[in-house]
């Protein structure tokens, strides 16, 4: 009997020891103290998902500070940016941009860097104002989308970035067009022409580009520069054949004795795509409700065609003050003070040379009332007794500094405006 008790005790001891050893060698369960960084990341992302942004960011920041070698480090850094972006508001969006830029600085070679750059652009996009208001966020959004397309051309986000860039450039072009139209209806053609030149060069996909070209043609025609005016009328026929202004543009070309061009096949194909996309655009009622929104209406933006990839010039990034037309020394077409001026404008495309209002052999004569004006070379700033050339083949008419457009100047191609 004594031996049986001893054997039983030995068996129980062996069983207990085997159980203890078995528990010790078992694989750790996910989410236990063996993976605290994963626990922190999972808890923080769940908090952010349920709108607890501050609590979630605190958890992600704790992970970054406590576990600098964690495999979740990059995800945590990106998650902080996402939390600010989802929280929204001006403060949240601005801080998200800072966080996304930090992510690209620390992790430039990760695949998520493309996403971070896209989010930077979207942060500015969501802060855009309407075309007649401050353009600072619109300009930054354009630059950031262009940076994305240049740095990550193979990203699956490229189509989305291109469309958002078209929408951003629609807003910029609309702002320029409104300012140009303001000056145009007041016969301040020099100020209007400077805006329209940049608009037609940089934003050919703008929904009102045909009207902008028509206004330029009218300006040159009224100042008796029919050869230059014909180029803009021809552009309407060639690049915007669907425009209601096409018939009138053809009549003007016939009047000038200029050949009427055929519609560009590329433009025709783009127009067909736009017509297909127009079926999915909001109706008039839904568009009218957009007036109540703080952001711009981008429903008229193009849905095809390559957006402009050149940086925006400083002209066109200003807002219009509604205090009255500027004093340009102009009393109307052909009036006193309508001297030619050399405008320095950044071109919209290096290949779009036909958009220049004056090329080799097209001289823009000055008004007889400005013969006493002191000739000025806007390139060198030197004054002399004779007119200085705007380029190697076209003499520049005298420019009166008191008549210069109020728009900012930037180095670029000289464009002769016949005023």
Task: Draw up the topology in text.
Blueprint: H1 2-25, H2 36-49, H3 53-66, H4 73-87, H5 89-106, H6 112-125, H7 136-151, H8 158-184, H9 189-202, H10 209-222, H11 226-239, H12 246-256, H13 265-278, H14 284-289, E1 341-345, E2 413-417
Antiparallel strand pairs: 1-2
Helix pairs in contact: 2-3, 3-4, 4-5, 5-6, 6-7, 7-8, 8-9, 9-10, 10-11, 11-12
Query: Gyration radius, to the nearest Å?
Result: 32 Å
CATH fold type of the domain at 36-169: Serine Threonine Protein Phosphatase 5, Tetratricopeptide repeat
Query: What is the number of strand segments?
Result: 2
Main sheet attributes: strand count, strand direction, barrel closure: 2 strands, antiparallel
Number of helices: 14
Molecular structure report:
By secondary structure, this protein is mostly helical. Among the domains are: 36-169, Alpha Horseshoe (Serine Threonine Protein Phosphatase 5, Tetratricopeptide repeat); 208-276, no CATH class. It is built from 14 helices and two strands. A two-stranded antiparallel ribbon has the order 1-2. The radius of gyration is 32 Å and the shape is elongated.
In short:
With 419 residues, this protein is an all-alpha fold.
Features:
419 residues, mainly alpha, Serine Threonine Protein Phosphatase 5, Tetratricopeptide repeat, 14 helices, 51% helix
């Amino acid at each position: 009997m004594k031996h049986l008790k001893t054997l039983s005790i030995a068996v129980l001891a062996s069983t207990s020891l085997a159980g203890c050893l078995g528990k010790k060698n078992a694989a750790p369960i996910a989410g236990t103290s063996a993976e605290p960084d994963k626990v922190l990341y999972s808890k923080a992302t769940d908090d952010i998902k349920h709108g607890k942004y501050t609590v979630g960011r605190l958890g992600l920041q704790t992970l970054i500070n406590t576990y600098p070698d964690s495999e979740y480090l990059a995800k945590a850094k990106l998650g902080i940016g996402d939390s600010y972006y989802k929280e929204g508001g001006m403060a949240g969006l601005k801080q998200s941009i800072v966080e996304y830029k930090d992510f690209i600085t620390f992790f430039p070679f990760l695949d998520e860097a493309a996403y971070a750059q896209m989010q930077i652009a979207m942060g500015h996009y969501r802060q855009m104002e309407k075309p007649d208001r401050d353009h600072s966020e619109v300009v930054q959004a354009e630059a950031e989308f262009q940076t994305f397309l240049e740095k990550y051309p193979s990203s699956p986000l490229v189509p989305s970035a291109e469309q958002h860039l078209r929408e951003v450039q629609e807003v910029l072009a609309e702002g320029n067009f409104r300012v140009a139209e303001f000056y145009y209806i007041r016969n301040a053609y020099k100020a209007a022409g400077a805006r329209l030149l940049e608009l037609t060069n940089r934003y050919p996909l703008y929904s009102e580009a045909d009207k902008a070209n028509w206004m330029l043609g009218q300006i040159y025609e009224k100042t008796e520069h029919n050869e230059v005016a014909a180029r803009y009328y021809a552009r309407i026929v060639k690049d915007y054949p669907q425009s209601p202004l096409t018939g009138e543009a053809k009549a003007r070309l016939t009047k000038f004795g200029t050949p009427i061009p055929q519609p560009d096949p590329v433009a025709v194909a783009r127009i067909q795509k736009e017509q297909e996309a127009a079926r999915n655009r909001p109706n008039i009622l839904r568009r009218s409700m957009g007036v109540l929104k703080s952001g711009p209406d981008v429903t008229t933006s193009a849905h095809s065609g390559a957006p402009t990839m050149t940086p925006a010039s400083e002209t066109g990034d200003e807002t219009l003050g509604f205090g009255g037309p500027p004093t340009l020394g102009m009393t109307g077409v052909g009036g006193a003070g309508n001297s030619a001026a050399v405008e320095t404008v950044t071109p919209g495309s290096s290949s779009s040379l036909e958009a220049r209002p004056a090329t080799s052999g097209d001289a823009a004569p000055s008004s007889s009332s400005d013969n006493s004006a002191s000739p000025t070379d806007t390139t060198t700033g030197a004054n002399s007794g004779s007119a200085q050339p705007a380029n190697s083949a076209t003499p520049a008419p005298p420019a009166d500094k008191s008549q210069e457009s109020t728009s900012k100047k930037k180095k670029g191609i000289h464009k002769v405006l016949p005023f």
